[in-house]
Design goal:
alpha+beta
């Protein structure tokens, strides 16, 4: 399916910040009609995102959407202060 690929490594201040971003961003699947696949993993304080698709236009749309969500999650983490080691609100 994939003719094109984009690999992004997003550094965060801590491993916990990267994990929070991963937990938030992994929930948004790419629409099937977009013909783009996205995979996310965490490597220490890096969020590694791999986009594959069949057209540059589809990849650009997927990347734009991803960066909008990434910026929102980063702004939210900044607004609420440093994260705790674990989420204890279950």
């Amino acid at each position: 399916m994939s003719d094109l690929e984009v690999l992004i490594r997003v550094p965060f201040p801590t491993d916990r910040h990267a994990q929070i971003a991963y937990d938030v961003l992994r929930l948004d699947a790419e629409p099937k009609r977009n013909h783009v696949e996205k995979s996310l993993i965490v490597e220490g304080n890096l969020l590694v995102v791999n986009f594959t698709g069949t057209s540059a236009k589809s990849l650009r749309t997927g990347l734009t959407s991803f960066f909008d969500s990434l910026l929102l999650s980063c702004e939210t983490m900044l607004a609420f202060g440093p994260p705790t080691e674990k989420y204890h609100h279950y």
